Amino acid sequence: MPITDYLTIAPPVQEALDAGQPVVALESTVISHGLPRPHNYETARQMEAAIREAGAVPATVGLFHGQIVVGCNDDQLRTLAYAENIRKVSRRDFPIAIARRELGATTVAGTMIAAYLAGIQVFATGGIGGVHRGDADDVSADLPELAMTSVAVVCAGAKAILDLPRTLEYLETAGVPVLGYGTDTFPAFYAASSGLPVDTRVDSPAEAAAIIRAKWEMGLQGAVLVTVPPPADLALPAEEVEAAVEAAMRDASVSGVTGNALTPYLLARVSEITAGRSLEVNIGLLVQNARIAAQIAVQLADQTTQTPS
């Protein structure tokens, strides 16, 4: 049985794909694990609305009853926002969640796989996973997925709780182009800049789309990472972010928080330390990334239409 037999593409998404219209995939762990209630559901709706306003079709991905659903409806979004015991689904987790017919929310890696299977070229998220601080062997499954799965990923860099220099080194080795959207430096999620250089700067959706198309037309598999600084009116000072992350990591160590529980714990603790301002940044960058991803998807669709056969 091919994996596509486990794939359910919502009619509006399938119609858009069949017509060559732009579609943007969205992950669902940000709904189930990344944001507190009710912000998670509200933000999911805002991201989808931003994509529609920019001229594309949103496709939030989740797992329901043994199927990978590409294009969750409102009831499914609510389920992802309010249900308990939702499995985080990355590459390794698909067979478990599907065979057991579990409710699942897709990570960056999981969403990339589903998007690629569905034929979606662009995916918007908050921050990718990366190399963890203090343990260079602890590498998010997002990074190898970026190396091998051909989906453009629009994000605010890697999560600030990670080792950003080592994460960029991994991406370089893996051949993943890192573009700075309106910036010469790699964003640091809550902060506008990590001070680390990107591979090249782009200042428009058309520039980003041209690089994405060039990579895939050359037959080079894997993602292109489009990194966008958080909204300027919400971004936090880099020094404040670093102090909050270090404090949160100390708290996690004392509390014995590890594994899949670590990232949600750290994000929640940083929000507490910053008196909720990091949550405002997170929501703002998620909606902004969704909008920019849609603009890039529109350009990809237009460039494809204009390319002579």
Describe the structure in brief.
The protein has 309 residues and is an alpha/beta fold. It is 47% helix and 16% strand.
Describe the structure.
- With 309 residues, the protein is of the alpha/beta class.
- The model has no long low-confidence stretch (mean pLDDT 93).
- β5, α5 and β6 form a beta-alpha-beta unit.
Structural class by secondary-structure content: alpha/beta
Query: What is the residue-averaged pLDDT?
Result: 93
Indicate the percent of residues in helices.
40-55%
End-to-end separation:
34 Å
The total of beta strands comes to: 13
Give the helix tally: 12
How large is the radius of gyration? 18 Å
| Low-confidence segments | none
**What spatial form do the alpha-carbon principal axes imply?**
globular
The H/E string reads EHEHHEEHEHEHEEEHEHEEHEHHH
Tell me the fraction of residues in β-strands, as a range.
15-25%
Largest sheet: 11 strands, mixed
